[in-house]
Amino acid sequence: MTRMGKLISKYMVESVQTSAHVQSFIEIDVTNIVKWREKVKDALTMVN
């Protein structure tokens, strides 16, 4: 590897070892929103 590649690799490894690497996921139930949207969409279709 080139000197630059070695330095980049070194700093990437240090980053993983010293920093908190966190992922967060949020799940949301949008069933009621979808039902409401379909109802509104159907009502608008009937008007036109």
Provide structural commentary.
- The chain is mostly helical.
- Helices cover 69% and strands 0% of the residues.
- It has helices at residues 3-18, 31-47.
- The longest helix is centred in the last third of the chain and has 17 residues, at 31-47.
- The chain is rod-shaped and about 70 Å long.
- 0% of the residues are buried.
- The mean pLDDT is 89.
Distance between the termini: 67 Å
Can you give the mean pLDDT? 89
Radius of gyration: 25 Å
By helix and strand content, what is the structural category? mainly alpha
Low-pLDDT residue intervals, each spanning 5 or more residues: none
Count of helix runs: 2
Strand and helix order? HH
Entry keywords:
48 residues; mainly alpha
Summarize the structure.
By secondary structure, the chain is mostly helical.
Task: Indicate the topology.
Elements: H1 3-18, H2 31-47
